[in-house]
Amino acid sequence: MLEIKNLQAAVDGKQILKGVNLTINAGEVHAIMGPNGSGKSTLSYVLSGRDGYEITEGDILYKGESIVEQSPDERAASGMFLAFQYPLEIPGVPTMTFLRTALNAQRRARGEKELDAVKFLKLVRGKAKELQIKEEMLKRPLNVGFSGGEKKRNEVLQMSLFEPTLAILDETDSGLDIDALKIVSDGVNMLRSPERAMLVITHYQRLLDYIVPDQVHVLADGQIVRSGGKELAKELEDSGYGAIVPNAA
Amino acid sequence: MSSLPESKHPFVEFYGPKVETEGDSLIQRLRASGLATYQTLGLPTKRWEEWKYTDLTSLSKKSFSKPVQYSGDVSQGPLFETGDALTAVFVNGFFREDLSSISDAPAGVAIDSLAGMETVPDWAEQVLASSSAPEDHSVLALNSALMRDGVVLRIGADIKVERPIHLRFITTATDDAPNPSSFLRNTVLVDQNASVTIVESYKGSDDADYFTSTASQFVVLESATVRHIKLQKEGVGSTHLATQMVSLSAKSSFGGFYLSGGSAVSRNEIHGTFGGEGAHLQLDGVFLGAGSQHCDNTTFVNHAVPSCTSSQVFKGVLDEQSRGVYQGQVTVAKDAQQTDGRQLVKTLLLSDQAEIDAKPELKIFADDVKCAHGATAGDIDDEQLFYLRSRGIDEVTARALLVEAFLTEVLERLEDQKIREFCQQQIVSWLDAHGRGARNVG
Q1: Residue A236 within any structural domain of the chain
Q2: Which of B336, B356, B365, B396 could form a disulfide with B347 if both were Cys (CB 3.0 to 4.6 A apart)?
Q3: A98/B391 Cβ within 8 A
Q4: What is the CATH number of the domain that holds A28?
Q5: Is the pLDDT of residue B74 over 60?
């Protein structure tokens, strides 16, 4: 599904990723852990094609094809999804309008028929109910006045609407209390499927108690320094990054 | 005819003919004193504080056609379709009865064309004499000197006018007047407890270098309500200078909305004055600029009496090398306690060459007031743009969505849904025309 080969990337001329290699197959959930400043968020932005993140070396293959020349919207239409650590507030854009515009843009790009208002509404209502999202929330401007938990639930709602084949979750647990974490994790777990790959980026092991990964990788100073099974996360929790990563606090 | 150099006093040669200037009716005196003021001051220069950001020197280098009536076809459709509106149409500065529908005005609504009236009623003369703009205002003086036509409108006491009144001002280049000039003066009196919506729309040929001078005076009596919408989409080569004067009596309310998207150079200047307590003045605007357009919004709000509120929100979207201006002066007199005066101007600069001069200003002489002002300017937020794009929305559509979202705050202040939708459409077509469009929202 996703193959990252010797990926090196710079922001404002500063090298952040220094040769990342990672392969994720369909149906797998991989976690990337690492101390602050290790390049975790940069990796998520580079994968989704954000401007200003320059690939200096290496390649990203998604479904066997290089995507480094693709725009963020092209990547989204081909099935990639990034759940943001800090979902953006956009006053003046109603959540419903946003969801419908995005879904239909993706469908159009894939040559599929757009959903009409009635079908769309039915679809969203069903998904929102599963995630305990009140309809009132969908009438508000996008993420405006949403609590941290509501914002993350809205991200998961988008994920379930767009049905991506590769979902990247960037620090999904940040800003969530245990109850919200549980709702969000349940939402994510519902979306686990043999056709879908997930990359969970997190600083803390806590999230991985809820979204249990198949593999765990430790990112430090722009490189993956260790990989292992889910028990690696536990080891990190017990010993701290210092035991694995040189010079980490 | 004037012997003064044309460069300082363009248009002076249009003064006359004699029949319009002799005699001692108030209008005739107004014209004569307007001419005198204009001849003393000339056109504003950038050395004048209030004209620091808007340069009119190009006007004096141009040669405009003298105002002449045109009775031929006007190919341009209405800018704004108000199905049931009472419509007064003016072409090249003169009333066109054949295109208008003012004859079926309901009871309590008196509407005429200034040039068509044999005698101007006393009340209209009083409104004309009651300007809330300063006397040494050369652009208004020029309009006074040369005013030809416009609407004379009175809404009787307690009359709630359901149908909007639409004043359409159209400029079209003709054989007689390849570069038309118009001098319009609208006079509006809204009696006690009456209510009305007045739409002024301006539209003209894109291929003519023309000039529109327009001034509107609104006297709003006790407990009356006026909604005023001005839509300016003049031709791209034109110059549009508008002066709006609003006098508010106790407990009255005036809500103005000004959409400016046309003209090479335009200025919409509003003078609002409170004459009685408990009145409310709301002035909102959207200005859209592209190419080398220059769009000036200037407001003066004078809280002369206590317990009145004023609120202004202006939002601009400027692309390419366009330039916008917002100058807002709120003055609170010594005795005007419990004043609430607010102004906010926000501008989205879509290009590095676009420029805004924003100058909200408070002059407060009272001590028990609530006043606030703010100004922001910036580009489209990169993070918001990336967020939308990461959801599959292409860059062009995402930008358009963010521009519309930016303008939502001010459009939501428009009560009338039809007019709000019209303004939204105008904004969308502006976005389309400037390469931000191809919208696929929905």
Answers
A1: yes
A2: B356
A3: yes
A4: 3.40.50.300
A5: yes
